[in-house]
Amino acid sequence: MQVQLTDRQQHILWATVRHYIATAEPVGSKALVDEYKLGMSSATIRSIMGVLEESGLLYQPHTSSGRVPSDSGYRIYVDRLIKPSATLIKKAGKLLQESFAQKYQALESLLLQRAATILATLSGCISLITIPQSSTDTLRHLQLVQVGAGRVMLIVVTDDYETNSVQVKVPITLEAEDDLEIINELQIVSNFLNNQLRGQNLTALSTLDWSQLDEEFQRYSYFLTETMMELTKIKSSHHTTQIMISGVSQVLCQPEFSEIQQVQTIMRMLELEQEQLWRLICEEPDLEDAKKSKVTVRIGAENPLEPIRSCSLISSTYHNGCMSGSVGVLGPTRLDYESAIAVVSAAADYLSEACIA
């Protein structure tokens, strides 16, 4: 959001968000005068708050009440007005280190659950840590094998020696050919695929330059690309979507969750619809976002999942050898972003270095 703010306006927005996070009550100019040394009169603060409201960064829940931050106000607060707490990053790292020093070092799920508990305690949010998955599907070998009339099997071996296969029906033009001729063609195409794709990701087949192969073999391109897409779906469905969750009860006691229906919706997602949440927190950030910060912050309506569109989700990816997972916290939009970003960052750093195999 390209909203230009003066230093004074930024200071008032910062103070308003901070005060609302602390109190959960709409903020008036008098509260800011009393609590913060802003060097401005109450009338000046009211005027600036009015400008911020016109810009869509604050709003009044009731005509006679003070103002509260909007999702856009929180976004500017997170992007421009705060920095993660270095002190809390060190504290979180130390607690995680102590946790992973326990004798249960080989029990991955237990260690991650302990980490989730620490994360929830430090952030005051619901903590979410995914079980690590293989972070690469790098191709080691591919082979096309005829398995029957009009049917071919694609066998793929990845760099971790995991083998996957899928059968497909070949085009009619191939069905009409002599079996020996098809076997020879399949070997030629297999050799081409290995030469072009070895060491690359499974998805590389979809962008393969088939013009490098003789024209007579290019008829394989369409059905092989479709085959690889099917194989990728199969592999994705085998991923473990288990999420270690902690801190639910303390967060759902917050005033934002006073309606029982809203609580039930969030609980249903956490208990029964974890796959959707897993896909969201494991989603890699855009390249431009990754350059700015390794922590992704989704505020309110920025969340694509309906049950958490009134929440903020802060997440990061951790990489442990050839494995990767995600760590995050979920809470109301009125949360302590400095602390939450700091502990997520610290947890991602530590899980990337810890031995949790």
Mind sketching the topology for me?
Elements: H1 7-23, H2 29-35, H3 42-54, E1 58-59, E2 68-69, H4 71-81, H5 86-100, H6 108-123, E3 126-130, E4 133-134, E5 139-148, E6 151-158, E7 163-169, H7 172-175, H8 179-197, H9 220-237, E8 243-246, H10 248-251, H11 260-272, H12 274-281, H13 287-292, E9 296-299, E10 311-320, E11 323-332, H14 337-353
Antiparallel strand pairs: 1-2, 3-8, 3-11, 4-11, 5-6, 6-7, 9-10, 10-11
Provide a compact summary of the structure.
The chain has helices at residues 7-23, 29-35, 42-54, 71-81, 86-100, 108-123, 172-175, 179-197, 220-237, 248-251, 260-272, 274-281, 287-292, 337-353; strands at 58-59, 68-69, 126-130, 133-134, 139-148, 151-158, 163-169, 243-246, 296-299, 311-320, 323-332.
Task: Describe the overall structure.
GO terms for molecular function: DNA binding. It holds the Pfam family HrcA. Keywords: Repressor, Stress response, Transcription, Transcription regulation. The protein has 357 residues and is an alpha+beta fold. The protein folds into three domains: 7-81, Arc Repressor Mutant, subunit A, CATH 1.10.10; 87-131 and 240-353, 2-Layer Sandwich (Beta-Lactamase); 139-237, 2-Layer Sandwich (Enolase-like, domain 1), CATH 3.30.390. Helix content is 47%, strand content 18%. The protein has 14 helices and eleven strands. The strands form three sheets. Strands 3, 4, 8, 9, 10 and 11 form a six-stranded antiparallel beta sheet that branches. A hairpin with a 2-residue loop joins β5 and β6. α6 (108-123) runs antiparallel to α14. The two termini are 42 Å apart. The model is unreliable at 103-107 (pLDDT under 50).
